[in-house]
Design a protein that fits this description.
Blueprint: H1 3-12, E1 28-34, H2 39-47, E2 55-59, H3 66-72, E3 76-79, H4 88-101, E4 107-112, H5 121-131, H6 151-160
Parallel strand pairs: 1-2, 1-4, 2-3
């Protein structure tokens, strides 16, 4: 669909702000997945403020109060059945399905419960996607909050800071 037709379709669906012609943030759904994230989840959920509309937290068998925290912060919570293996993909799919039950958002931001969104991220990603209809996914720059915590965190920080450019993995290796 061409950019003009895509913008017209969003406008007709009420997704575009009529004053600015940009995507309304309340049309962005957010799915957070996690298990026993504790304080990391609290920071993650706080970082969602002003980043989108509806948010869903999908829990993979936490025993640390993560479910209660998410509910107390006003998120819809999906608790995965422990009778099946927990995977990130299963959690994201369950969260997406929960968002769809209340009406399809125009865009979805997936975030792990141990990550935080920087202010303005979803607005910037939505603007880039709106400006170029060939963009189907926008990913952020990951950085480890506590790289000095242990060797795993330090290695993750090094791995995440590779060269900037086209993502050949998401583009099928081209």
């Amino acid at each position: 669909m061409g950019q003009d037709r895509r913008a017209a379709a969003r406008k007709a669906a009420g997704a575009l702000d009529p004053m600015s012609g940009t995507l309304s943030l309340d049309r962005i759904g957010i799915v957070v997945i996690g298990r026993n994230e504790g304080e990391r989840l609290r920071r993650c959920l706080h970082s969602l403020a002003g980043q989108g509309g509806r948010a869903v937290y999908v829990d993979s068998g936490s025993t640390d109060g993560s479910v209660a925290l998410a509910r107390a912060m006003g998120l819809r919570v999906v608790e995965l059945d422990p009778g099946r293996p927990f995977t990130a993909a299963r959690g994201r799919n369950a969260g997406f399905a929960a968002l769809m039950e209340d009406g399809a958002p125009d865009l979805v931001q997936f975030v792990d419960g141990d990550c935080e969104l920087v202010p303005g991220w979803t607005e910037a990603a939505a603007a880039a996607m709106q400006a170029d209809p060939s963009i189907g996914i926008a990913t952020g720059w990951r950085t480890e909050i506590e790289p000095e915590r242990n060797l795993f965190h330090a290695l993750a920080e090094m791995e995440w800071h590779g060269p900037v450019g086209d993502d050949r993995v998401l583009r099928g290796g081209r």
